[in-house]
Amino acid sequence: MIATLVQLALAPRFRTLRYRCAWALYAAIVVVGAIPGACADLGDYASGFVLHSLAYAGLTFLLFTGSTGNARQRAIKAVLTAMAMGAFDEFVQSFFPYRTADVLDWLVDSGASVATSILLATFLPKDCTDR
């Protein structure tokens, strides 16, 4: 079971799938954020800080492992993409009267992305990052 999960998470043949999953996850984040009361319901289980951190760390993992290049190039691409995603999500929230766009949320998104990219670039095996 663990070997299968490692294959899905790191195997080069699933790179495109991981990248597409990142965009699907992002779309789900934006859609769920637009549902009245959905974020308040999620707040019963975890704080906004935790939710933003986990969501954007997951997105960054999928973007990092779904892109090509060496570890540094992947990290830069993943962080810049996640930062743009977070900014757009906050922008979309500004159009809903029951939501507010918050720069602090974007900073949490960006911080989680940077931290995740640093960890992945540092600790993933070299053969997983140099393709």
Brief rundown of the structure:
By secondary structure, the protein is mostly helical. 77% of the residues lie in helices and 0% in strands.
Account of the protein in words:
With 131 residues, this protein is mainly alpha-helical. The protein has one domain (15-129). The protein has seven helices and no strands. Helix 2 runs antiparallel to helix 4 (48-66). The chain is elongated and about 45 Å long. The chain starts with a helix and ends with a helix.
Q: Residue ranges: pLDDT <50 for 5 or more in a row?
A: none
| Number of E-type strands | 0
What portion of the residues fall into strands of 2 or more residues? under 5%
Tell me the number of structural domains. 1
How far is it from the N-terminal to the C-terminal residue, by CA? Answer: 25 Å
The radius of gyration over CA amounts to 15 Å
- Largest sheet data: none
Helix content class = over 70%
SSE order in H/E notation?
HHHHHHH
Shape: elongated
What's the tally of helices? Answer: 7
Summed over residues and divided by their number, the pLDDT gives a mean of 87
